[in-house]
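Per your request, structure below.
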């Protein structure tokens, strides 16, 4: 759940052998929503019901489907939104939630209704949904894929109530007469707060089927998930959710040093800590391998240090990645939040800053040189999770975004982002076939994102699913080529140069090089072209990554200078000759004089619009 108001396999000569176990690689994550992954219903009625538009199921993730994911080089699947959420669809023994607290008929997967259950929409037999989910976990294990699910610690649905563990339902036993109490689960509104009185008045009044009221909050009110302390949250707030309390009054600032330390016993920590620890343990025991943590920066770092430690005591290799944004005023640390989360025990954090630079090439006048300032950030740089798409971000192939260039823009974007560091890399389902998310879908409107709020199917991805064959039988040649290219890219960045090596940027050494992709009227190079080296000292593996981000201009006569310091970085300073071999785009290869690369530079074949090259370098 990104805070939009703030941040609006093919084997290769230097790739890891195909028999290397997944646990020995960096995580290569395939993000999918069960709701849309296997849904081949092509009705796509705006604001349609599940009966009208269909819904993907756990059982759609067949062995064939999972093998197609594994064959591309993925090691993990992130099953997005599988926890039971507030929804407009009813089941036996489970009433639909009122529309006043829903975003979309299907509901937001980040408004969780029961942390100990899964969404019944995804089961062939809703009463057996947990058994069907366990069967999916087993299928993933058989196919060599680890499973990540969401952990949404900052907020829950207004209707939260656990049927599975009613003794651990949030809000049970809270003291509602105070705004803050250490062991309350929620923050409660008082007469002194905006709006000044009960009942809670939601911004949905006048919408279809809505009254602007939520019956349980007629005598009391709670703070929204995005920290809004008001009896009248706005339509732009996370009004469908309520914020959880970790023993810190967020209105008092970011100093959370009063909270218990990492070694505290369960009896000594705030009640929400204990509940969340039980939730993590529940899913770990079931066989879940890791967690993608939503808006992790809004929760105290002391909780993370305590809870991640306890999770690792249960299973040492449990994987934690954090969605977090340092520019969000709601963060609970004065440090750079990505560093703070890594220190608290996370394996990886979202690299939103690098993503924003690349997106800014097309919508805010940025240059590729602007990326350089983000490549000197120490440990964070190599423990960042990088992506070209996720459910919060716009589709690369959207006709409205990324310069309207279509699916080809994913090539330079992902070659650079996947190749930069040693951290995990991630792809969102549909990205590999150019899913554009074009047109209105429902609650989200026409926002260039595949909806997470509605019952929907993806018009291009269903061509890959092809009636459950998962063979791409309905894709056009360009889409099949794109998917094959992504497989090659994942294979290429499985080299030790990328998984274990260091980064050396080359744009800084080529700003004055007029043959480094400079266009007419530009006095400095590095607008649309980006290049860097990756080198692993142990194996000696060295790779040069070059990408042209221009949408319709081929860059000819490109010469890339590698300074003497760069050659020493790659331990090639004494090499008389360098052998360069393309590993991603074509069969190009060349042998050059070692002394020439920091003078005239290396002559690169034509860089077509929105293209990338990964070139192996060896010395002799």
């Amino acid at each position: 759940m990104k805070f939009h108001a703030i941040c609006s396999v093919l084997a290769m000569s230097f790739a890891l052998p195909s028999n290397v176990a997944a646990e020995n690689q960096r995580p290569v994550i395939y993000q999918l929503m069960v709701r849309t992954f296997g849904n081949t219903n092509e009705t796509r009625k705006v604001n349609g019901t599940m009966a009208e538009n269909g819904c993907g199921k756990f059982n759609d993730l067949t062995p064939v489907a999972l093998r197609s994911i594994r064959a591309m080089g993925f090691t993990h699947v992130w099953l997005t939104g599988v926890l039971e959420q507030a929804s407009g669809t009813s089941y036996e023994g489970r009433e639909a939630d009122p529309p006043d607290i829903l975003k979309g008929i299907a509901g937001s997967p980040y408004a969780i209704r029961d942390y100990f259950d899964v969404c019944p929409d995804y089961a062939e037999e809703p009463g057996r949904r947990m058994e069907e989910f366990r069967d999916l976990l087993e299928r993933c294990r058989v196919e060599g894929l680890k499973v990540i699910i969401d952990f949404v610690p900052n907020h829950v649905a207004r209707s939260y109530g656990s049927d599975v563990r009613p003794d651990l339902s949030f809000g049970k036993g809270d003291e509602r007469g105070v705004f803050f109490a250490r062991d309350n689960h929620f923050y409660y509104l008082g007469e002194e707060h905006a709006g000044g009185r009960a009942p809670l008045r939601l911004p949905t009044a006048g919408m279809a089927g809505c009254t602007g009221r939520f019956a349980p909050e007629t005598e009391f009110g709670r703070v929204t998930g995005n920290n809004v302390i008001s009896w009248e949250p706005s339509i732009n707030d996370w009004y469908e959710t309520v914020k959880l309390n970790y023993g810190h009054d967020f209105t008092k600032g970011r100093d959370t040093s009063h909270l218990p330390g990492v070694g505290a016993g369960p009896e000594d920590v705030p009640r929400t800590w204990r509940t969340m620890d039980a939730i993590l343990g529940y899913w770990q025991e079931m066989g879940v391998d890791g967690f993608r943590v939503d808006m992790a920066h809004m929760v105290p770092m002391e909780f993370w240090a305590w809870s991640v430690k306890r999770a690792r005591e249960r299973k040492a290799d449990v994987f934690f990645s954090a969605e977090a944004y340092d520019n969000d005023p709601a963060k609970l640390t004065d440090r750079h939040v990505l560093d703070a989360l890594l220190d608290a025990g996370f394996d990886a954090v979202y690299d939103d800053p690098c993503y924003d630079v690349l997106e800014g090439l097309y919508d805010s006048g940025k240059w590729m040189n602007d990326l350089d300032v983000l490549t000197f950030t120490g440990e964070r740089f190599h423990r960042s999770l990088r992506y070209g798409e996720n459910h919060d971000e716009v589709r690369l192939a959207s006709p409205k975004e990324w310069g309207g260039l279509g699916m080809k823009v994913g090539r330079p974007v992902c070659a650079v982002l996947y190749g930069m560091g040693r951290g995990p890399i991630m792809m969102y389902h549909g990205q590999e076939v150019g899913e554009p998310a074009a047109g209105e879908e429902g609650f989200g409107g026409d926002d260039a994102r595949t909806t997470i709020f509605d019952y929907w199917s993806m018009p291009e991805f269903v061509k890959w699913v092809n009636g459950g064959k998962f063979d791409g039988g309905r894709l056009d040649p360009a889409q099949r080529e794109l998917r094959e290219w992504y497989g090659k890219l994942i294979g290429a960045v499985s080299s030790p140069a990328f998984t274990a090596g260091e980064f050396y940027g080359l744009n800084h050494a080529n700003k004055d090089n007029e043959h480094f992709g400079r266009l007419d009227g530009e006095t400095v190079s590095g607008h649309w072209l980006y290049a860097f080296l990756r080198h692993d000292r142990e194996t000696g593996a060295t790779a040069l990554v070059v990408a042209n981000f221009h949408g319709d201009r081929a860059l000819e006569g490109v010469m890339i200078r590698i300074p003497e310091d760069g050659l020493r970085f790659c331990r090639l300073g004494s090499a008389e000759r360098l052998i360069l071999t393309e590993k991603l785009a074509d069969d190009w290869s060349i042998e050059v004089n070692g002394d020439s690369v920091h003078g005239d530079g290396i002559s690169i074949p034509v860089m077509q619009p929105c293209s990338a090259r990964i070139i192996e370098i060896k010395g002799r």
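The chain has a mean pLDDT of 95.

Regards,
D.
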